[in-house]
TrEMBL record, chains A, B:
The keyword Kinase applies. Gene3D superfamilies: 3.30.230.10, GHMP kinase, C-terminal domain. Pathway: Amino-acid biosynthesis; L-threonine biosynthesis; L-threonine from L-aspartate: step 4/5. Residues 127-203 form the GHMP kinase N-terminal domain. It catalyses: L-homoserine + ATP = O-phospho-L-homoserine + ADP + H(+). This is Homoserine kinase. Its EC number is 2.7.1.39. Pfam families: GHMP_kinases_C (PF08544), GHMP_kinases_N (PF00288). Keywords: Amino-acid biosynthesis, ATP-binding, Kinase, Nucleotide-binding, Threonine biosynthesis, Transferase. One of its GO terms (molecular function) is ATP binding. HAMAP family: Homoser_kinase (MF_00384). It is an enzyme of class 2 (transferase). PANTHER family: HOMOSERINE KINASE, HOMOSERINE/4-DIPHOSPHOCYTIDYL-2-C-METHYL-D-ERYTHRITOL KINASE.
Amino acid sequence: MAISNQTPFKTLTLPSPKTLFNTTNSPIPNFLSIKCNTSLSCKPLIAEPEPIFTSVKTFAPATFANIGPGFDFLGCAIDGVGDYVTLSVDPSVQPGHISISSINGAKGLSKDPLWNCAGIAAISTMKMLGIRSIGLSLTLDKGLPLGSGLGSSAASAAAAAVAVNEIFGGRLSVSDLVLAGLDSEAKVSGYHADNVAPAIMGGFVLIRSYDPLELLQLKFPFEKDLFFVLVNPEFEAPTKKMRAALAKEISMKDHIWNSSQAGALVAAVLQGDLSLFGKAMSSDKIVEPKRAPLIPGMEGVKKAALEAGAFGCTISGAGPTVVAVIDDEEKGKEIGSTMVEAFLREGKLKASATVRSLDRVGARLVSSKPR
Amino acid sequence: MAISNQTPFKTLTLPSPKTLFNTTNSPIPNFLSIKCNTSLSCKPLIAEPEPIFTSVKTFAPATFANIGPGFDFLGCAIDGVGDYVTLSVDPSVQPGHISISSINGAKGLSKDPLWNCAGIAAISTMKMLGIRSIGLSLTLDKGLPLGSGLGSSAASAAAAAVAVNEIFGGRLSVSDLVLAGLDSEAKVSGYHADNVAPAIMGGFVLIRSYDPLELLQLKFPFEKDLFFVLVNPEFEAPTKKMRAALAKEISMKDHIWNSSQAGALVAAVLQGDLSLFGKAMSSDKIVEPKRAPLIPGMEGVKKAALEAGAFGCTISGAGPTVVAVIDDEEKGKEIGSTMVEAFLREGKLKASATVRSLDRVGARLVSSKPR
C-alpha cells in the first residue's frame, strides 16, 4: 500500500493515546467497535482480522526533522534511503506475539521486540488490531545508520507498523500508524512525531498538537523540484550533550524570530518557494547555535554549502548529518562535494554526501506473498 | 491607486533603513538614483517629481495584528473601517514641509506633523521622493478609535504615506511605503510592521525579518469567505501594563507550542481553512494568557464566542478589542451579540460589535483632483 495523499492539504486529528479506547465519544476506525477501559488491554467486539498475506515487505524512508526553526514540530521524508521490514506469519511464534528473527545492516540492536523500535511499533499495531491468534516473525534490514539524525528509529517503527497493518488487510488509518510509531519513539528518544509522522505519511508534516495528536500534511507542489544534500560525517553526535544543549528558557526576541521563520518555512513549503525555504531553514537562532559547536566543522560546512549555492543548510534532527537544499540534482552533487571537503578541512572529519529528493509517499508496501 | 496583488505569493525584501541610502550595493527604486551618505539628508540625482494632482484623498484600513501566536510578526487588514487622509498642494505651506490643517473624529492628537502619525509618515515619504519645492496641507479623518488594538496609528500613517506618493505620481514601491509607515510606528508604539504592513498591502502579511525588512504576503483564497467579529469594549487598555505583561523569557515548551501554532496559522491562511485558522489563533500560550486578565471579562467573552460557534477568538493587537472569526456574516452578528452580552456580564463593560470581512487590497487612492 503506497500511502499517497491526493488532497492538497490534510489535517488528521487523532484521539490522545489514553482516550483511544474510551467508551464515550472517542473517534474510532469505522470497522472496529471497541468497548473497554482506558488501558490497552481492551477486547475488540468484532472478530480478529485474518492475515491476507503469508508475508509482506515494507519500506519506510529517512526523515529530516526540525528543519531549523521547526524544532520538534516539523519534519519531512527523504526519498531513496530507509529501512525495510519483512514480516511473516510464523506458526512457531507464540500466538499474539512477535519474534525478531534477524537484523541486518546495523550492529548492537536488541532482538527483543520490547526493546527494538520495529518490535515496539509492531506490538502496538497488533494490539490496535486485536491480534491474539497469530504469531509473527520479523526481519529488519536497516538502510539508515543509527544516530545519524535521519530518523533511523522512526523508519524502523514506521516500516513495522505498516507491515503489521498490511499483513492483516490494511484496516488501520494513517493516524493509528503514527500512534503506533509514537509508542516506539517514546521509548527510544522521546514522545516526538516529527520523524515518525513524515516517515509514515511522506512529504512535510507539521505537528500542531500532541494531545490530541493533530498532524497537518503540507504539500510541496508537485511541479517543483526539491533536493536534499545529506552529508554524514564519521562522528557520533553526543546525544546527551545534544539534549543538554537545549535551553530551558529563551528570550522573547528569539522566540518571535524563530516563530516568524517557522511561519515562513510553512509558507515556503506550500508555495514551493525554495529560496524562502532555504533562508528560513537556515535562520534558527535557538537550537542550531547551541548544537552546531558540538559537531566539528559544522559551521564551516554550512558556510561552504551556502557559498556553493545551496538555498539553505542546517543540522538534520540532532545531527550529525548536515543537510542542504537545492533545486537541481547535479548542483546538489557539487554542493555535497564542497561540504565533504569542508568537513575535512574545518572539522577534521571524513564525510559522505548523497543527494536525494523529497519522498512524497512515505511508508509503503513493497511486496507480498498471498495466502 | 488600489494596491492589489495579483501573484498568489509575494516576498518583498527591503533594505534596512540605515542602508537605504548607502552608496554601495543598496537596492534602490528603479526611478531614483541616490548618492549620499548614510543620513537621511541625501540629495537625489534626478529631478524632484512634480505633483500630478492638486489634491488626493486616500484610505487605509484597520488591522488585526498578532493574531494570537503570530505575536509581532503577523497581521491582516480589515475591510470597511479605517482612516482617511486628504492631502493638497498648498502654496501657503513652506516648501518641503507639511502642515496638518485639521483632524476629525478623534481628540487629543497633535497637529504638529513631527508628533502626528500621519505627519511623520508623510514627512518620511516626502524625504524619499526628495520633495523640496512643494508644501503640502493634510487633513486627517479618523475612522478608528485610538488605542483600540485595531491599528489606528498605522492606518493614519499608511493613508498619509500613500497620499504623498500618489500626489507625486505613485513612484514609490509598496516596500518604501511600509518603511515610511514604520518611521511613524517607531515613534508611537515601537518598530513593528505587523499593523502598518497589512494596512498598506492588504490581506495577511508575515514579517520574516526587520533588517533587512522582508514581508511575505499570504493570500487567503479568493473563493473563501472570512469575517471578523470585532468587539470593542468601553475600556482603555492600560498600555504600559500590556507591554509590561510580556514575559522577557519563555519556556522552550511554550516556544515550541506557539511556533507550531504560528506555522499552522500560516498554513490555514494559504489554504483558506478557517477551522484550523480559528484553532491556531486561539491557542496562544504566551501573550494572551498574560494580557487577557487585564481586559475585564475577556476570557468569558472568548468562551462565549467559541460556544456561539466562532472558529476562533483572541485579542486584537494589544486590545482591548476582541476579535472572533467566522465564515458567515449573519452568524457573525449573532456571535457579536453574544460577545457584547458576555462583556457586560463578565466584565461589567459596555461594548459594541461589528462584523467585517478581510480587506485584500490595503491602502488606496479614493479620489483626486488633477492639476
